[in-house]
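Appendix B, example 12.
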Amino acid sequence: MAASPLDNAGMSDTRPVVDWLINGARPAATPQEMFLQLCTRLVAGGIPLWRAGIFVRTLHPDIIGRSFLWRADGEVVVNEAPFEFLGTEEYRKSPILTARTSGKAIRRRLLDPESPLDFPILLELRAEGVTDYLVSPLFFSNGEIHAVSWATRAPQGFSEADIAGLEAVAAPLARVAEGRAWRRVAGVLLDTYVGHRAGERILAGQIRRGHTETIAAAIWLSDLRDFTELTDHRTTDEVIAFLNGYFDCQVPAIAAEGGEVLKFMGDGLLAIFPLEAGRDAEVVCAAALAAARAAAAAVGKLDALGDAAGVRFGLALHIGDLLYGNIGGGNRLDFTAIGPAVNLTSRLERLARDLGQTVVASGEFARHCPAGLEPLGSFALRGFGAPQTVFGLAKTGDAR
């Protein structure tokens, strides 16, 4: 009868796994697929794995890192750790943290009654039948140290050949993990600072100055009223907290309706709702208007730093063609949207202030989304020859 991997007695061979990692861990397309294939290949090579985990720190505005956990009876489970995780007992007393800070491997043979149980997780693992546990540091080329853990339920634990094989895997695994981690970091940073659609284009190679395309989109331009007066005599921390809260009233509403924030301009915000497959002008304008209503309601409830008049902002909506791409000087570029449609939206936003309105829309926008809008009149806008019919929200106490 063929020997079970759990009866391993020094017959493991991880050289094919090392070669696979050196060659880029193809064809695994995602980190979880890569880790699943890694563990599967290690078991096939004679390593009696029952559980494996890897934790990689990352650059992200909301999370400190991601963990991947594999068990022999299931798939890879991915968890994201928020920044608050760093202050927990689970993290401070983790062997992963110790391996990362010391740069040294940690092994605990739990089948040995004399084995120290100096990390809380060891009690959990022993209760689950784990007999041997190894944490290996993963050294990234930039000096960072991450970690991978291996556990077995084999009656005799890991053999010395198993340990040597797992240690041989660590270096090429670190190279693969680093490459994939930094690609994810690049994507996250681009999403954070330029938006998801723009980030995808940049990663795809659209980084030359003048590389633009014409797209049709609903355009959102908002601006805070009386910002100087509102924040005068406030501390920097108070102002930043207020602005973050103010933008929190808009960004989730925009994202929920399929829009994307292109940039923050002080207390101003530029966003677009592109016309894409399955989203024609009527659908997109209705989504933008729904986001505008949600944002206006949220801003209306915002703490105005003690100002009894409350928070006042203006929001203009328009739809049209715009140039979307790279503009700048030298090697300093901005991925943005420009064109007459954006200029018209800017003029409308200024008009909203003069009219005492919170939300205004162009006649073209109202043509695609008449429900919920009513005409405010026809107005001459600087830079545009013909007067523009302007609309506001219908049947709302929208004027301030």
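Residues 66 and 80 are 4 Å apart (CA to CA). The first helix runs from residue 15 to 22.
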